[in-house]
TrEMBL record, chain A:
Organism for this UniProt entry: Oreochromis niloticus (Nile tilapia)
Gene3D superfamilies: Dynein light chain 2a, cytoplasmic
Family: Belongs to the GAMAD family.
Biological role: Acts as one of several non-catalytic accessory components of the cytoplasmic dynein 1 complex that are thought to be involved in linking dynein to cargos and to adapter proteins that regulate dynein function. Cytoplasmic dynein 1 acts as a motor for the intracellular retrograde motility of vesicles and organelles along microtubules.
SMART domains, per the entry: Robl_LC7
Gene from which this protein is expressed: DYNLRB1
Keywords in alphabetical order: Cytoplasm, Cytoskeleton, Dynein, Microtubule, Motor protein, Transport
Membrane-spanning residues: none
Protein name as it appears in the record: Dynein light chain roadblock
SUPFAM superfamilies: Roadblock/LC7 domain (SSF103196)
InterPro entries referenced in this protein's UniProt entry, alphabetically: DYNLRB1/2, Roadblock/LAMTOR2_dom
Domain Roadblock/LAMTOR2, residue spans: 3-91
TrEMBL record, chain B:
Keywords: Cytoplasm, Repeat, WD repeat
Superkingdom of this protein's organism: Eukaryota
UniProt-listed GO biological process terms: cilium movement involved in cell motility; inner dynein arm assembly
InterPro entries for this protein: Dynein_IC, WD40/YVTN_repeat-like_dom_sf, WD40_repeat_dom_sf
GO molecular function: dynein heavy chain binding; dynein light chain binding
Protein name: Dynein axonemal intermediate chain 3
Gene transcribed to yield this protein: DNAI3
GO cellular component: inner dynein arm
């Protein structure tokens, strides 16, 4: 499939644990993780993105959310939202 | 009836000549016909056919009015001719009668005398009043009574005395003047019963009842009943949520859409950028923390000065003397409580059947800080070689005895807390009496082992086992159920393993493994002849160490042989790492697949899943190792006890060839058991038991209890490295074996070709 080639530069990066592509409602389209984790991630992060986006736009309606990084003890989650989709990448930090 | 006319006076009539002249003939003297004009009629309200008619011709006129009229109109008035009569008239009202038939010649006539008036005109009102007056005033006179027969019935029903009442008077003659004594007596008492003549049924005489009065009452029959309609049917309903998912077609459609491609193209650079950033540098590190906390972080500096510090020594003169401690265990939840099992030292006993224990054995509970008096004793029928607290329910303790039986203790929490809270003063007063508790259940003789039980372990719940028909699963909460368990334990299955598995699988009787299921946890224990062996659980396999230092790896699953009896699988591997008895096998608390074993004169570290052998073997020491345990807080540290009573502290990250710390002669004899315990973050204890029945508790110093930075990571790297080394070694050995074989064959060929 074509999107593999598109995702491969991301997947090739060091420490990447998983990639999820979901639509604007939080339903996963494509993922490299197992189904239950995918569904959980997509659902939860969708809510987070909605909240963050509304926060940014509340502060300044001209503004919009472009990227989100959530750093946790064990890994880092990167979220790139868009009008119709959003992309979630989970990475293990270097050390 | 003629009314009394007492009011009426008889008056005489005066005859006036003019009257005669004016009045027509044929009229009585007291009647005077007159003509009344319309105006007069209207004035006196006696218009013809209006006020006075044929039916009511009478009209009473007032005398004053007439006089007035005469005065006003004088000669014109109609009443002028009768003026004198009117004036003389005694009464107030004069009767005027309308003469329809013109009997007296005119339309009206006037009645001149009151008698005539009374005669002609009878007013009804006074009559009525007179009648009423008559009735009321008279009082009714009593009438004579007419008998209708009711007095007969009254006489019949009435009760009359047939004879006069008889009266008897009894008295006791006594002389007056004597002293009198009055007292009370209860008439219901038997002694002073009052004399009475009760009535009795006389058979000679009977009365036949002829008539009986009975009353009837209609009672409405009441019945109350209720119904209640159930508003709703009770139904179990539940809602289960499922995450939304796209169908395959949808997914494919989206995946192939241009939109997605554009999105990914636009987003990828950003994501790559972020990924590279995190990879390059960790922006969230705390530099100060990374520096470490001074001297504690470095092991090298503080090698010599700090070591294990002796905190307490527990002995119990009555029970401990002369006995060696077989097993030590900390209480999982209560801090400061440690349990010790004693076994008697005995000389080599050739004849086991006569080995009869005279005094009962105990598991002794010691508590801080009381060093010489135990807190609680658990009574056992025989020496206990191994015991364990149940991890999920610390009130349960299972023990394995010398005679092969398995015991179960169940204590309520009060027992143990009471034992702990008893203060030192109480003990003095109580004359050193410690509470004793008996065991709750014991396995029966036929299903026990034949040899001493040396190791007991609790299996976690994750193991799936089929319940054999021979066993029973019993609920596990109340001591009552243990009575039921008592003597009914049967093994889940028997696994017979062999000793010398280098050659063939031999079914021998020496080593048995019994598994008893108990709800969540299963106890697994095995036994051998004299020395300890341990069994270890790893998923489907269990590792079984034997007395010759061999380590056997066997599958847990049951197989069926041709007789359809459950049969244990053949052991897969067998290693001879330790030269002598293996006495300790323990899983590392940090790494799930790393095991430490000690036996003989060295120790070994194993990794599960690695079938080639131990990944690390420690160097041999001059003294035999008798006990070992991992440190609970540091992944790289473990403690080894030796035969001469010393403890070695090993730190694999620092030095793999020798121990880091060496505490010489902590105990005077061989150390039998070491167990660590974490009481709080600052207090780590190590319990060391020896052969003389002494239990020493050491506190672990900070260097040995606080882990170094990234210690677990480094240990993981170490183990991986060792693993790789082992793999390489095995490969190399294989190759070398192949080479040798080839060399041998070629030699043979040369030799054979030589001929």
């Amino acid at each position: 499939m074509t999107e593999f080639s598109l995702l491969s530069p991301i997947q090739g990066q060091k420490g990447v644990q998983g990639i999820i592509v979901a639509n604007s409602e939080g339903i996963p389209i494509k993922s490299t993780l197992d189904n239950s984790s995918t569904v959980q991630y997509a659902g939860l992060i969708h809510q987070l993105v909605m909240k963050a986006r509304s926060t940014i736009r509340d502060i300044d309606p001209q503004n919009d959310l472009t990227f989100m990084r959530v750093r946790s003890k064990k890994n880092e989650i990167m979220i790139a939202p868009d009008k119709d989709f959003f992309l979630i990448v989970i990475q293990n930090p270097s050390d | 009836m003629k009314p009394k006319s007492s009011f009426y006076q008889i008056t005489s009539l005066f005859f006036f000549p003019q009257l005669f002249l004016n009045a027509p003939e044929d009229h009585p003297d007291d009647i005077y016909p007159i003509v009344l004009t319309t105006a007069t009629q209207e004035l006196f309200e006696c218009c013809i056919d209006e006020d006075v008619t044929d039916q009511s011709p009478y009209k009473l006129l007032k005398k004053d009015d007439i006089i007035q009229d005469i005065k006003t109109r004088a000669a014109v008035s109609d009443f002028h001719p009768v003026k004198q009569f009117v004036l003389d008239y005694p009464e107030d009202e004069i009767l005027l009668v309308f003469d329809v038939d013109f009997t007296y010649g005119q339309s009206f006539y006037l009645v001149l005398t009151p008698e005539a008036k009374a005669r002609i005109y009878n007013p009804p009102q006074p009559e009525i009043i007179e009648v009423l007056e008559d009735d009321v005033s008279k009082t009714p006179e009593p009438k004579p009574w007419i008998s209708l027969g009711s007095e007969l019935e009254v006489d019949q029903e009435s009760v009359k005395e047939t004879r006069e009442k008889l009266c008897y008077k009894f008295y006791l003659k006594r002389r007056p003047g004597l002293p009198v004594c009055f007292s009370d007596r209860n008439s219901t008492e038997a002694e002073c019963r009052s004399v009475e003549c009760p009535s009795y049924q006389d058979s000679r005489f009977s009365i036949k009842r002829m008539q009986r009065d009975c009353g009837m009452q209609a009672v409405p029959r009441l019945q109350s009943s209720t119904t209640q309609t159930q508003r709703a049917f009770q139904r179990n309903i539940f809602t289960q949520y499922e995450p939304r998912e796209l169908s395959k077609k949808e997914k494919e459609r989206i995946l192939s859409s241009e939109n997605l491609r554009k999105f990914l193209n636009s987003v990828t650079p950003r994501v790559l950028h972020a990924l590279q950033q995190t990879h390059i540098m960790n922006v969230f590190t705390d530099d100060f923390k990374a520096l470490g906390i001074g001297a504690e972080a470095s092991d090298r500096l503080v090698m010599v000065s700090e070591g294990l510090k002796l905190q307490w020594t527990f002995t119990d003169e009555k029970r401990a003397m002369g006995n060696k401690i077989s097993s030590v265990s900390w209480h999982p939840t209560i801090h400061g409580l440690i349990a010790v099992a004693f076994i008697k030292k005995q000389e080599e006993q050739l004849d086991k059947s006569t080995a009869y224990i005279n005094s009962p054995a105990f598991i002794v509970f010691y508590g801080f800080p009381d060093q010489s008096n135990p807190r609680l004793l658990l009574e056992c029928p025989d020496d206990i070689f191994a015991f364990e607290f149940c991890p999920s329910n610390p009130n349960v303790i299972v023990g394995g005895c010398r005679n092969g039986k398995v015991l179960l203790f169940h204590s309520t929490i009060q027992h143990i807390t009471v034992a702990c809270l008893l203060s030192h003063q109480d003990f003095d007063k109580k004359e050193n009496k410690t509470p004793v508790m008996r065991y709750c259940a014991v396995s029966s003789i036929e299903s026990s082992h034949k040899s001493p039980v040396t190791d007991v372990q609790w299996l976690p719940k994750t193991f799936e086992q089929d319940v054999d028909q021979k066993t029973m699963m019993t609920p596990y909460s109340i001591p009552k159920t243990f009575k039921h368990l008592d003597r009914t334990w049967k093994p889940l299955f028997r696994v017979l393993s062999c000793l010398g598995c280098i050659t063939e699988l031999m079914i021998c009787v020496f080593a048995h493994v019994f598994v008893m299921p108990l709800k969540e946890y299963t106890i697994l224990y095995n036994l051998t002849e004299i020395r300890k062996t341990h069994t270890y659980i790893y998923k489907q396999f269990y590792v079984h160490f034997l007395q010759e230092g061999e380590i056997v790896y066997t599958d847990w699953k049951l197989e069926e042989d041709e007789f359809e009896r459950k049969f244990s699988a053949k052991p897969l591997l067998c290693f001879r790492t330790h030269a002598w008895f293996v006495n300790t096998m323990q899983r590392s608390p940090f790494f799930k697949d790393i095991l430490l074993t000690t036996g003989g004169w060295n120790f070994a570290i194993w990794k599960e899943g690695v079938m080639g052998g131990p990944i690390f073997v420690g160097p041999s020491s001059e003294q035999e190792y008798s006990a070992a345990c991992w440190s609970l807080s540091r992944p790289a540290v473990f403690f080894i006890g030796r035969n001469d009573g010393s403890i070695e502290v090993w730190n694999l990250l620092l030095n793999t060839s020798e121990s880091t710390h060496f505490h010489e002669h902590i105990a005077s004899t061989r150390i039998t058991c070491i167990k660590p315990c974490i009481a709080s973050s600052k207090q780590h204890y190590l319990a060391v038991a020896d052969n003389l029945g002494m239990l020493r508790v050491f506190s672990v110093p900070k260097t040995l209890r606080s882990p170094v930075k990234n210690e677990d990571l480094n240990m993981q790297i170490f183990f991986d490295r060792e693993h790789d080394r082992l793999k390489d070694y095995l490969e190399w050995e294989e190759q070398w074996a192949k080479q040798r074989k080839e060399a041998g064959e070629s030699k043979k060929q040369v030799v054979s070709s030589g001929f």
